[in-house]
Amino acid sequence: MKVQMTGRHMTLTNSLKQRTEKEVAQFEKFFEKVVSTHVTFDTNKTGFDVTIEVKVYKEVLTTTAKGETAFSALEICTDKMKRRLRAHKEKLKERKRHAEPTHEAVKKIRKTVTKD
Fold first, then answer.
1. How crowded is residue 12: how many other Cβ atoms within 10 Å of its Cβ?
2. Domain segments of the chain: what residues?
3. Which class does domain 2-115 fall in?
4. What is the pLDDT of residues 52-111, one digit of tens each?
5. N or C, which terminus of the chain has less Cβ within 10 Å?
6. Angstrom distance (rounded) from CA 64 to CA 51
7. Residue 10 pLDDT > 60, yes or no?
8. What pLDDT score does 58 carry?
9. Which of 89, 23, 95, 100 is nearest to 59 (CA)?
């Protein structure tokens, strides 16, 4: 998975970069098909804003969080993204469960019904 980090109005320290990579690596536990991740850190008068954009197959999931420190904002934002990835995965599973049966599946069902 490709990870890109951007700091607006700030420079990213090595410890912040390492922590970000560690947190973002956990996303693949929740959804296997993560293509890339972009994490943006921004400073403001009250603290830090963190935005995470995760590209999954055909979609981009985005979360934002605010915190007093960059690390606390990152933790809040990654927790939100983990919940979103889990929900996205469940949504795809649910969609697959209710999909129309394929032509081959219908033939198999008809064969088993006629045999009985």
1. 14
2. 2-115
3. alpha beta
4. 999 998 899 999 999 999 999 999 999 999 999 999 988 888 877 766 666 666 666 666
5. C
6. 4
7. yes
8. 85
9. 89
